[in-house]
Known about the structure:
Elements: H1 14-40, H2 45-65, H3 79-107, H4 112-138, H5 142-145, H6 152-172, H7 175-187
Helix pairs in contact: 2-6, 3-4
Amino acid sequence: MTTSAHTTPMPLTRTTLGAAILAGYLLLYGGALFAMHTASGFDITEPLFALLILAGGFSGFAWLLTIGVNPLSCVVSNAKDELATITFYGLFVVVFVTWGFGLLHRIAPPGPLDAIATLAAKLTVFVAIPAALMKVRFGYSFRGLAPASCSARHILAAAGMSVLLLIFQGVFGRGLRDLEGAHTCQQR
């Protein structure tokens, strides 16, 4: 009885690449949750609930809203360099979120100045830096970074996802509680 092994590797298609990336992400997410739970008794219920809502709910809703919608054209100039740049930028974001906000809150006095400094930092890190990277490093125009359409189907998809995000923020975010707290303080 003999066995044979294939000497040629299985071709990497978009489907297999997507499945590999998803599996890697889930392993990383699960590993991080396991490490936090074993190290400090971190309750994993909330992160798993967030994963279910954000990955399952938002993705499913986006899929439903875009059935039959033709995607807008987008030209990628250099995919490998862009992926490398986005990866390094993502590492910078992790460092900023992990330590930058704490440093910012220690430097800025509590109150309105802290809120303004936080807003400025978020706009710089999450909007200005990635837009500048894509414009300067890869030559994208600002219009090319966010293609727009006046098609009713595209507008419906964008509006539907925007409303869903506002509902999510209203139910699970701090915004409404902060507004209520500010309003309650004003009435006293």
